[in-house]
Each structure stands twice: as structure tokens, then as C-alpha cells.
Amino acid sequence: MSDKKAIIKSENFCFYYGSKIGVKNISMEIYPKSVTAIIGPSGCGKSTFLRSINRINDLIANIKTKGVLLVKGHNVYDKNTNLVNLRQQVGMVFQKPNPFPKSIFDNVAYGPRLQGVKKRSYLQQIVEEKLKAAALWGEVKDELNKSALALSGGQQQRLCIARALATNPDILLMDEPCSALDPIATGKIEDLIDKLQTDYTIVIVTHNMQQAARVSERTAFFCLGELIEYDSTVKIFRNPAKKQTEDYVTGRFG
Amino acid sequence: MKNNNAQINKEPKTSSRSLALTALEDFNGFAIYHSGRFVLFAVSFNTVLIVLLIFYFVIQQGLPFFKNFDTIEFFTSKQWYPEADNPKFGALSIIFGSLYVTISALLLAVPAAILAAVFLSEIVSHKIRNYVKPVIELLAAIPSVAYGFFAVLVLAPFLQTHFGLSTGTNALNASLILSIMALPTIISVAEDSITAIGRDLREASYGLGATRFETIFKVVIPAAHSGIIAAIVLGMMRAIGETMVVWMASGNANQIPSPWWDLTQSVRTMTATIAGDMGETSKGSPHYQSLFAIGIVLLAMTFLLNIISEYFLASAGKNSRKK
Question: Would you state the CATH architecture of domain B75-322?
């Protein structure tokens, strides 16, 4: 793996909410076209780190960062970062399915429309392609004009994935995407993640260690705002180098 | 058994009390429950009763008019000569006047109010919002006669001198003042419904590369549309039912402006007609009845608007609960 060039790279990255530390001194490399999982107990900063990558944390007042967080070689916390381009290239799927209260079609078309796509036939093509990529097309192809809120939770989450894919990102951030879903819907999302990694770099934060073990190639273990261990998933779960990691993955702590 | 007793004695006394109610306790509970229920029911029923009585009274007083006089003429004729020997009761221009100033006021107030609501909920910090919003809501607490004074003593001369109008009390004056009076209602309700849109939708929009402008106008406002429509309807109710201001500011000329879009002409509204004429009529006279007939029309309009706003507020509530 490590022969590949990292697509996301952080060097001593620190994030503060006011005076409170979110994460500190995170140095890790995330490799393209693979699934990287971030695990750790609640409040360990795993979501903070993930949400720093596309700077969605900017919506919170009073934040400060230190260190470097490179996406495709550009430090995203540089003053000259184009947030629109960053977020279109780094898509995000949130913890709770959050489709817009619009039709299924308009949800997926939201991103392309922001990019200035107006032609209906082209939009239709994008919507179909992305819904297929998110394994939702078969279930909704006859009711694209129905409100997205009428879908089930699992369908809504796959719609949110399709919506994120519609801006053609390279990277897909997933912040506990299955925590609000039942096991069957979770299984579908996991299958989807497995499929998507051939085209996208996926970083997934999860509470569920089995999920991390199932879907990811590499796993990072965060605790109290620090990166404790980052290695191949097999190593983290079978033979972790640090005692803390072992305690966590074996369920003795956290 | 012995063992048990010993244990119980060590516990606080409460545990030795009987779990069954005594007959007296049972009766007291029964009495308090039912008398309390009765009092609360009576109080809340009172309000309902008052509303029903208002409806009954207005309809009872006004209905004879529709029996004794030509209903079609009432709604289609502009001839309003209630005290003439051969009285004419054409309320068209009065009904038109009410709608005219109300709609003009809304055209002024709605864009401003929505932008203000967006500003308060999206742009300024929570701290500033918490100071500004109560001040805006305070606008609703100013007595309408104070607004009327302002309309007559400040705005009317201003319109006359700066726009060369023959009279400063006209539809424009009334609309301007009404729009200010409708602002607090619309801003407050619209701001609440915009704020109620969760952070998750905003994050979804920003996460797709939307700017703040795009997020507000393509996601937040459409998602809050039920509450915003309810806010507009509530503002409309405020404007159409307002009496004192339009009485003082509209000029009270019984006419439909010609051309119809000329806001600088005087008009007369339903509310001002009722308030102005009621003192001059004798009870039970045709003129008196005709005023109640206008009251029925007004009541029907506000009732309808009320139902509409309830509908949209209910669906706004449903939407935000879904999230």
C-alpha cells in the first residue's frame, strides 16, 4: 500500500474549538482508492478530524487549527483554499441521513446544478448514473419525483451517498454513516462502500469495530484527541502494537 | 417473618406505610381531580364560547341585511349611500379598499421581513439576534393609534411636500404604516421557522460545495416554506384587521383608485367604515345592519386566513419533527 502516493496527508495537525482541543498532533497518510477507517471512543476527535478534511467544521464559530492538512497536496487550511472546489472534490456523508426536503431527482441534481449544469437530459443522465452507483436506482427509478423524505432511512442514506457522488468527488468522507440504520440497511451500505472503493478514496468514521474490520483496508485508532495507532486493519485487530489499541479492539475499554 | 420485620424497622418510616389508599384519601383525590378538571374545562371553554358568541352575534346582526337588501348589489356596486332617503349599499369599493391596502402593505413588508428573518437567523451571531429579535417584536406592542399619529402627523405631510400629492392620507400612507405593523409578526414567525431547519441540512448543502447564499436560498428557505407562508398569512391577518391606522391614514374616500395601481389616492377599508360609521347609526337601522354585513365579510376573510396559517404552521411542525 505505502508505495502509493497519499491523497490526504496530515502533519502535526491540531484542531481547537475555542480553547478546547479537538485533535492534536495528528500525522497520518490516507491512500487513494481504498477504505480507511477511523475508530475510537466517543469524544476522541475522530469526527473532528474527518470534518476538518472538507472544512465542514468551519460552520462552528471560534475554531483554530495548527499544523498541516494536505488534500491532493494542498493545505486545506491555507487562506487561499477554494472551499467550493474542496467540498466538491471531498464529498461527505453524514451520521443521520439528511436528504433535502425535495424530490429524489432534485437531491441528486443539487450538486451538479450548483456547478452550473442546466440541461435536463444531462442532469437525468447524472442522476441515473449516481443512483446506480449508490445501488438505489432499481428501487426508485419510477418515482424520482417523489419526496426524498418518503424513503426509508437506509434508502435515504444511499440517496445521500448518490448526492455526494454527483459532484464527482475523489474522496468520500463518511461520518458514522450507519449509526442510524438497522443491520440490513447497514449491510447494504457496507456492500456499497466495498464497491465504491475501486473509484473513490473513502474515509469512514465508525463506532462499530466489526464494521471497521469488515470494510476497511487500513484503520486508525484515536483516543483523547490523539492518533494512537494507524496500520493495516488486519494488524490493528489481530496484533496491535499498542496496549491501548488492544484494550479497545478487544472490548476491555471504551 | 421475624427477619422481615426487623429489616423493615431499620428502613425509613415510609416503607411501613400502607400501599392502599384510605377511604378519605381516595375521596379527596377523586374530588380534587374532578373539581380541578371542571375549573380548567370551564376556563378554556369560556374562550371558545366567547369566539362562538362573537360569530353568532355578528352573523345574527348582519344576516337580516342580506335578507332585506340586494346581496349582489352589496358585493358589486360602488354606490355606498347608507343614510340617503333611498339608501344604497354597494360595498365593493370598501372591500376593495381593505384588500388594496393589505396587499400593498404585504408587497412592501414580505420581502423586507423575509430578508430580515434570514439575516437574523443566518448571518448575525446568536448573541446579536437575541438582542435584536425582542426589539423587533416590541414593534408589535406599540399601540396602533401611535402608528396612526405618526401616519397623520409625520408621514402625510412628508408625502405631500416631497411627492407633491394633494393629500398625504392615502392608500400609500396606510400601506406603508401597515407594512411596518406587519413586520414584527412576519419576521418573528419566519425567523423561527428558518432557525428550526436543522444544521444537518445546511451541512449537507455546504458539503456539496454550496456557498452560504446558495444554501440559504436553495435549501433553507425552501425547507422552511411552510412556516414562511404561515408568517405571511399571519401578517396579512394583522393588516386586514387593523382599524385605527387605516382609519387615520387612508383618507377614507369611498372609491376605487383609477387607475387601479395609483396608490396615492385615498381609499376606505372595511374596518375603518365599521369603526367610523357605527357611532352615527341607530341600532337596528339598515345602515347599522349593513355595517354588520361588512363585519361578516371581514370575519369570513380573517377566519379563512387563520385556517390557512394553521394549516401551514401544522405542516411546518410536521416537517421539523421529521428531521
Answer: Orthogonal Bundle (1.10)
